[in-house]
Structure formats: structure tokens, C-alpha cells
Amino acid sequence: MSAKEFKFKKTKKIIENYEARLNEIKDILAVHSSEMRDYCFELAMLKVWKDWDDKMPVGSVIAFNDEMFLESGDKNVVDLMKLVQAIEEYAGVSETDDNDEPKAPKLKLLPNK
Description:
Layout: H1 3-46, H2 50-55, E1 61-63, H3 66-70, H4 75-91, E2 106-108
Antiparallel strand pairs: 1-2
Helix pairs in contact: 1-4
């Protein structure tokens, strides 16, 4: 085997390892972005949407989307949603389907304890 062939095989293996690890990292980020979406919801319900939440009838089902969080008026919720969107873009995941319609989670409001 010539030096060039050896170098090519070694480089190919490094690239394959790199790509595999990058894909693993993107999968991990996708999971974290989903969790962070939940944090956006929790923060909004604890502060800026608290009065609205208290008035909603038990069992109501509401579809939330990114814009609702971005327009919530709470800097922390807005910043967190922007981070979620940036992570999803980097990881190659999205909360939209093929028609670019938001696939917002439908959340059922439970009674306050």
C-alpha cells in the first residue's frame, strides 16, 4: 500500500467518525430543544399567561405555536424560544410538517392544585 492510499483510508475513517458523531450530537440537541419548548410553555403559564390560564375551562385544548411564545412579551420566554429555533435549525429538525404548517402540541389544561 502506498503512502497516498494509507492517508486516504485514514482520512476516510476520520470523516466517517466525524459525521457519525455530528449526527449523534444533532440527535441529542433535538431532544433538548423539545424539552426547552416545554420550558417555554411552563414559564409563560407561570407569568405572562397565568391570568389567561386561570380563566380557561378545565379540559380546554389549545394548539400553541412558536409565534405565540415569541409574542408573549416575556423576555425569557422569547429568548428561550429563539434558542430552541436556532438549535432546531442547526440540528436539522423542525416542529413543522411537509406543508410548513406548525405542528403545535395540543395541550390539555388540567385543574390547578
